[in-house]
Amino acid sequence: MKRLLIILGMFVFGCNSNNNEPVKIESPTNVNENELAKINPAPKEEENEISPKKEFQTGDLIFHTSTSDQSLAIQLASNSKYSHVGIIYQEGGDTLVLEAIQPVQITPIKTFIDRGEHKAYVVKRLKTSEETLTPEGILKMKEIGKKYLGKNYDKRFEWSDDKIYCSELVWKIYKQAFDIKIGELEQIKDFDLSDPIVKAKAKERYGNNIPLEELIITPDRMFQSDKLVTVLEK
Q1: Starting from the edge strand earliest in sequence, which strands make up the sheet with 94-100, in order?
Q2: What angle separates helix 69-78 from helix 2-13, to the nearest 10 degrees?
Q3: Which label site among 41, 95, 144, 182 has the fewest CB atoms less than 10 Å from its CB?
């Protein structure tokens, strides 16, 4: 049950679609502060500093925790952390992140990190990055990424290119550029919709017509992919 809740929670609540504005989190009255600390321990002050650029490579995936109260509720229920993902770009000495918020845009990495809970993040890299992310491969990846820039954030999480959400953007770029699937696609019908929190959010997004056959890729599924290796965690 908990595993299914986090999967649905990630696609229902995951990804920061708040126009780049941080969301103030009000701690639920029934949240045990000790339990919350176990799930999201505050990093040490020095860990909030951005790492040197040499630790980031174009094509790396960067994950963090969305700062929404809905996402917090899912975290507490599932003991999971990361709910948003983007692709790191190196451009002219700057470290940037291509991400699907509102709209799809390229964000300075400091801005991306500052929006995450406790400014914590994890960077993962394709295990075959040396063979795959060649100069030609990176150029192809960036060209594909350009076609998504400016597209609206997809609150309904549909598997089309009209609008797009965070993990869908990253998944499609890697699939189209390199024929690499980072994380397995699932369908909404695979998830447990019985929890009151999940049920309420699903009704808000879909009304009484939940598209049970819709394909979904979640940040959690990408984070768990065996095609990636963790290179940095702060």
Answers
A1: 104-108, 94-100, 84-91, 61-64, 122-126, 228-233
A2: 160
A3: 41
**Burial class, 157, CB count within 10 angstroms (exposed 0-12 / middle 13-18 / buried 19+):** buried
**Helix, strand, coil abundance in the chain, percent, nearest 5:** 40, 20, 40
HSE at residue 89, side-chain half, CA atoms within 13 A, is 20
Per-residue pLDDT reduced to its tens digit, 174-219 = 999 999 999 989 887 777 667 777 777 777 778 888 878 889 888 8
Express each pLDDT in 97-141 by its tens digit.
999 999 999 999 999 999 998 999 999 999 999 999 999 999 999
Give the pairing type, strands 94-100 and 215-216: unpaired
Dihedral sign, CA of 215, 203, 103, 66?
Answer: negative
Cα separation, 113 vs 97, in Å, equals 10
Assign 183 to helix, strand or coil: coil
